[in-house]
Amino acid sequence: MPLFCYPTDVMETKGKVLAIDLGEKRIGLAISDETRTIAAGYEVMPRKSRVEDYERYAEIIAAEAITLVVMGLPITLSGEEGQRATWVRDYSAGLSEHITVPLEFWDERYSTKQAEASLHARGKRGKKARHRVDAVAAAFILQEYLDAHADPV
After folding, report:
1. Distance of alpha carbon 106 from alpha carbon 89, whole angstroms
2. Distance between CA atoms of 51 and 12, rounded to whole angstroms?
3. Which of 81, 116, 130, 141 is the most buried (most CB within 10 A)?
4. pLDDT 10s digits, 26-72
């Protein structure tokens, strides 16, 4: 379910999508293929200042030819937006002023739990799992977004 977007016709364009799983200390990033079919973890970057974060996103957008950004929005289990969602929306408002591609929000409920379970199932534990979990969570957010917007077969 989309949770607001800028502009409304973002899926009309093909091209790579960047997903962001914003945390207080780390940011997980995932990128889709150009057909918007498959999501893959890209990197985990440490949170710095907003300006430095925004500069890094702009670098990735340019280097990877990104055409859309999907920001994970932390919705509570009851479907409400709390303080964290307000923080993400505020951060995203600033980001949208620093990038040249549209930004859309997507519900990120359960993405970290899915990522942890996936890493555990693949034998990744401890420090290796903690380092990758944010990128894997971003990939889950992005894959759910892509699947929801896929053309029906």
Report:
1. 11
2. 30
3. 141
4. 999 999 999 999 999 999 999 999 999 999 999 999 999 999 999 99
- Cβ atoms 74, 84 nearer than 8 A: yes
| Residues of the chain above pLDDT 90, percent | 61
**Which residue is it, tokens 């995932």?**
30
Please give the helix or strand (H or E) that residue 79 lies within, else none.
none
- The reported pLDDT for the residue numbered 121 is 65
Residue 123 in tokens: 């034998």
Q: Which segments of the chain are extended strands (E)?
A: 2-6, 16-22, 26-32, 39-46, 66-73, 103-107
- Could you tell me if residue 21 is left (phi over 0), alpha (psi between -120 and 50 degrees) or otherwise beta? beta
- Indicate the pTM of the whole model: 0.83
Whether the CB-CB separation of 131 and 113 falls below 8 Å is answered with: no
Cβ neighbours of residue 135 under 8 Å, at least 6 residues apart? 21, 28, 29, 30, 41, 42, 43, 44
CA 149, CA 143: separation in Å to the nearest integer? 10
